[in-house]
Amino acid sequence: MDVQQIMTRQPATLSPTATPGFIPITEEGRLVGIVTDRDIVVRGIAVGKDPRECAIAEIMSAGPVTVTPKSSVDDASRPVAEHQARRLPVVDEGKLVGIVVLGQLAREEDRGEAGETLKEISEPN
pLDDT of 63-107, one tens digit each? Predict the structure, then answer.
């Protein structure tokens, strides 16, 4: 038997310049949670867990706020503002189909309330 017969194909990867601040967690294509760098620190390291050894389920944020592909930019900006999120999963019938980030929403600032809302989020507290 060759390794190619048992290997995981198309593994998730990051480039060396990426900032892994947000990783969607899926089960059979359905979004079940997210893990942020903050989750790793607060729910993992700060309570003595080794993030290299604990299950993702122990540190992930379950039931993340999401939008659908047909949500308006204004509708997407509301949960981003309310939860101070910089990334928002996009789901279609529970399946992860994309992610919208703060910068993408901010580009639409001339099209409604999203721009002002996102400006407030982007400013330090």
Answer: 999 999 999 888 888 888 888 888 889 999 999 999 988 888 877
Has residue 52 got a pLDDT over 60? yes
Q: What share of the chain is helix, strand, coil (3-state, %, to 5)?
A: 35, 25, 40
Apex CA 29: angle with CA 67 and CA 94, to 5°? 35
- With CA atoms as reference, report the closest residue to 74 among 91, 88, 53, 56: 88
Q: CA separation (Å) from 41 to 35, 37, 44, 65, 122?
A: 10, 6, 5, 21, 22
Residue 2 exposed, middle or buried by CB count within 10 Å (0-12, 13-18, 19+) = exposed
